[in-house]
């Protein structure tokens, strides 16, 4: 399974949560193939089939476009699929953030457990500790984020095929933002 997210180092993630997510942001937030394989092996989990998920989502978007059968002009097609792809990328980025948060929580719980502070009276025999549950939950979230990244990747592929352009997050023109800011300041002038 070779894909663009297979090997990379992860820089610290400091994305502005207010900015529209990009595919590159989702790639940084979600586990890559090697990490997903390591996590799956450590926790006895199934690694989602990245390439299959990617191909199915690309195919699904293309089928959606065909279903319009000429009902949308080129501009409407771009706008419609820009939003759909944006939703899939947003889902992957959100899952990647959630996964990162759960890894941090699992690390903290494991450190507490190592210091003897996991459970006040210890864990009954046969039951998982809080730290173990936190690690397992983080591992499950890794697999989900990896699968959602594959879906977003397929959507980005389909957008390029459908429109001939690379997908970019929609941003209101700077002029519109300035106009809104000016309007807000003008309306504020009427306040007592």
Descriptive notes:
The chain is mainly alpha-helical and 192 residues long. The protein has a domain at 23-60 and 71-119 and 127-169. It is built from 6 helices and no strands. It has helices at 23-29, 33-43, 50-67, 74-114, 130-163, 174-188. Helix 3 (50-67) crosses helix 5 (130-163) and helix 4 packs antiparallel against helix 5 (130-163).
Radius of gyration: 22 Å
* Structural class designation: mainly alpha
**Would you tell me the overall average pLDDT?**
85
**Distance between termini?**
64 Å
Number of strands: 0
Q: Which band does the percent of strand residues land in?
A: under 5%
Number of helices: 6
The rough form would be described as flat
Which blocks of ≥5 consecutive residues have pLDDT under 50? 4-15
- Helix and strand string, N-terminal first? HHHHHH
Main sheet: strands, sense, barrel? none
Q: Give the proportion of residues in helices.
A: 55-70%
Please sum up the structure shown.
With 192 residues, this protein is an all-alpha fold. The protein has six helices and no strands.
Write the layout of secondary structure elements.
Elements: H1 23-29, H2 33-43, H3 50-67, H4 74-114, H5 130-163, H6 174-188
Key descriptive features of the protein:
192 residues; flat
